[in-house]
Amino acid sequence: MNDASIAVTGLGLVTAAGIGAEASWAGVCSGVSTAAHAPALAGLPVDIACTVPDFSANKLVGRRSSLSHDRFVQLAIVAAREAVADAGLDPRTWDGARVGVVVGCGLGGVSTWEQQHRRLLETGATSVSALLIPMLVPNMVAGHLAMDLGATGPNFVTATACASGATAIGTALSLLRDDVCDVVITGGAEAGVSPLIVTGFAQMGALSRRLDDPGAASRPFDVDRDGFVVGEGSGILVLEREADARARGAKVRARVAGYGASADAFHMTQPDPDGRGVKQATRMAMTAAGVGPDDVDHVNAHGTSTPLNDQTEAAVLRDLLGHRAAVTSTKGVVGHTLGAAGAIEAALTVLTIENSTVPPTANLANQDPKVELDIVTGAPRAQRTEVALSNSFGFGGQNAVLVFTSA
Fold this sequence. Notes:
single chain; 407 residues; two-stranded antiparallel ribbon
C-alpha cells in the first residue's frame, strides 16, 4: 500500500433521485429521468428542472437552520452528516483542528438573493433580512458544515463553475498529503433551481426546450440532444490517508488516486473544440494515479447533453482511451447540478466501483455517430471496475478530472 494513498471512507448524497446515497444510487441505476415541470419556474420560457423530492428542511436539518440557511447549505448539511456517519467518525470525539472542510459551489444562495431583492423592490429596505449576506455568500456552506460538525481545520469553498465539486476534492488531496489534516469533508452543493438562474441559462441557449416531455429532455450523447436540465443537490465525501483509515478499522470504499486541472483559455462558455485543456487535465490525473489508457475501465462523463460539450468530451475520450472504457453520464437522471455536479458524480463513481455496476445514460435512444464511445444505455451494466475517471468542466474553460481506484 502506498503511504500517500487517499481513501474514501464515507459518502453522502442528496439528489433529485433521492435523499441519501442508497436512494440516489437506486434512482441513477433505474435510468429514469427526474426532470419535471417545477412550480417555482411556472410561466418562464423554460420551466423544467430536477429537484430533490420531499426535502423538509425542518425535519432534516432543524427549524433554526431551515430559517437561517439557504437551501444549498441545507442540502450540504444532510449529505455531510450522512458521509461522516458512513465513515464511522464521531465529531464529538475527533480532533477538530485536524479536520478540514472544502466544498465546491458555483452560485451560493441565489434563492435568498431573489427573495430579498423582491422584498427590497416591493416593500422597502427595512423588510430586507439581516441574514441576507450570511445566507447568500457561497463560503457559508463550508462555514456551516464546520459549525455543524465541529471541524476547526482549514475551511473554504472552491468556485470553478460546474467543476467546483471536483476541484474541491482535488484540493482536499493536498491537505491530506501535506499532513495539514487527518480528515477532510469535501464535495459540493448547489441549489440553482431559481427563476433568475434558469432563465439566464435559457437565454444562453444552454437548456433543453423539450418542455412537452420533460423526462426525455436531458439526453447526453444522443443525436437529438438540445441542452441540459438544471438540477440541485449535494455530494459529500470523507477523505483520509489510507494508512490512518485502516489503522482505525474503517472501511475503505475506494481510493482517490489522481487529480488533474487545467484551463482551456479559449472562451467564456464554449469548450475548446480541440479539447486541449480537457486532454491536459486527463493526462495529468492519470499520470498522478500511475495509470495508462488501457487501465481505465469506466468514465463518469461530464456529459451535459449540450451539443458542443458532449461532442468535444467524446472526442477527447476516444483519442486518449479508445473504445475500451464503459462511459455513462448520470445527468440524464439527476440533471446538471452545476457546482455540485463534480462531487455528486465522484460519489456515484465510488458506488460504481463498489457495486461492480455502471449506471445507464438515460434517454440515449440514438447515439450521436460522432460519439465513438462505449456508452452504457438502457439498463445498468454488471462490470468489475478497478480504475475510473470522473470528469467535470466549467464555464471559463476550467477542467477537473479525478481518478478513483478500487480498494
